[in-house]
Amino acid sequence: MADNKEIIPPHYDLDAKWDACLDLTVRRFVYSSFAGAFGGLLFFRSPQTRWASIAFGAGVGIGSAYTECSRLFDGPPTKLSLTKGSEAPTQNMQDSE
């Protein structure tokens, strides 16, 4: 029976990706909230500003986890190329067709 079990390639294993993403999100949320709490206790006296620093830290943690998870699911972002004579990055027109 165990011989018939199909092995899913890591690229398509969504369960492992969701587990990694959930773990990363919880850890970054908690650690950055603690960092915001520590910074709030260190720098601010008002309870409102201390709570604001905790909320800011939590937002930074969730934002960085979202960025990392989207990279995990979608792959790395597309490469932008510089055209000759132009300093602003533009997307190559051949890639979009």
UniProtKB/TrEMBL annotation:
One of its GO terms (cellular component) is MICOS complex. It is found in: Mitochondrion inner membrane. Residues 77-97 are annotated as: Disordered. Pfam families: DUF543. It comes from the Eukaryota. Keywords: Membrane, Mitochondrion, Mitochondrion inner membrane, Transmembrane, Transmembrane helix. It is a single-pass membrane protein. Belongs to the MICOS complex subunit Mic10 family. Component of the MICOS complex, a large protein complex of the mitochondrial inner membrane that plays crucial roles in the maintenance of crista junctions, inner membrane architecture, and formation of contact sites to the outer membrane. This is MICOS complex subunit Mic10-like isoform X2. It comes from Cicer arietinum.
